[in-house]
Write a structure and sequence with these properties.
Radius of gyration: 24 Å
Largest sheet: 2 strands, antiparallel
Structural class: mainly alpha
Number of helices: 7
Shape: elongated
Length: 157
């Protein structure tokens, strides 16, 4: 039974905390998973996967923050310190979509939020989310959502 020490209104319990190989704390009867021996090649692969995920995470964050601007794959690649070819491959591998598809999905998601506000015309919304042409916005919206932007606004909201 762990000893408890009063500290104002808070009870602090003194107990031994152990950590498993992944840095997670375990208590009491929890079993520490056996450490798996990995080769240098496996370690390099794990490290490369983590680095790839980091690049994709940063790229997605940049796209999310700048979706309403005219951004290109080249710009995002520069911000994530990789070539545009490499970023394109990583996005396809990890997200299953190319840069344009990812950007358009983010823009359409934000457009759907703006459609809740009746004061905005579709042309205004298209511009606010980064499309330079309302016709292109309408085409992308229908491709992504399966219905037109007008239909979405009139039936889903």
């Amino acid at each position: 039974m762990p000893e408890s020490y009063p500290s104002g209104d808070i009870q602090i319990s003194a107990e031994t905390i152990q950590y498993d190989g992944a840095g997670r704390s375990i208590k009491g009867d929890d079993q520490v998973p056996e450490k798996k021996e990995i080769t240098g090649e496996e370690a390099a692969q794990e490290s490369a996967l983590a680095a790839d995920s980091f690049v994709v995470k940063n790229a997605l964050q940049y796209i999310e923050e700048h979706y309403n601007e005219k951004i290109t794959l080249t710009q995002v690649a520069e911000k994530t310190y990789v070539s545009q070819w490499h970023l394109s491959k990583l996005l396809n591998k990890e997200e299953g979509k190319n840069f344009s598809e990812i950007l358009n999905c983010i823009r359409i998601r934000h457009a759907k939020e703006l459609m809740k506000e009746p004061a905005y015309r579709l042309a205004d919304i298209a511009e606010l989310v980064g499309f330079t042409d309302v016709t292109h916005f309408s085409r992308v919206f229908k491709k992504n959502e399966g219905i037109s932007a007008n239909e979405y606004r009139n039936t889903k909201l």
